[in-house]
């Protein structure tokens, strides 16, 4: 399984009044994450209908690369602030590609 690519959909719903701060924090995750060896893509989106909702669509070379990403200090720093910044728990789901 560790050789199969992994797609992550990570949804973030921001507390009222924290949208700009969280957007800035999320933007700071992009450059270092894209430099990680197993990162294929790491793209941040904001909902057109709800400015408080963001989603990362991530593609990783394998589960090992994703596991290593989850331990990075910059990601851990964001997760440590989740209760302060987010209106609801981070919603993360893992996917695998069926058709290439």
What does the model show?
This protein is of the alpha+beta class and 100 residues long. It has one domain: Alpha-Beta Plaits. It has helices spanning 19-34, 63-70, 73-80, 82-85; strands spanning 6-13, 39-46, 53-60, 91-95. A 4-stranded antiparallel beta sheet has the order 2-3-1-4. A hairpin with a 6-residue loop joins strand 2 and strand 3 (53-60). The longest helix has 16 residues, at 19-34. The mean pLDDT is 95.
Task: Tag the structure with descriptive keywords.
100 residues; alpha+beta; Alpha-Beta Plaits; 4-stranded antiparallel β-sheet; 4 strands; 29% strand; globular
Fold topology:
Layout: E1 6-13, H1 19-34, E2 39-46, E3 53-60, H2 63-70, H3 73-80, H4 82-85, E4 91-95
Antiparallel strand pairs: 1-3, 1-4, 2-3
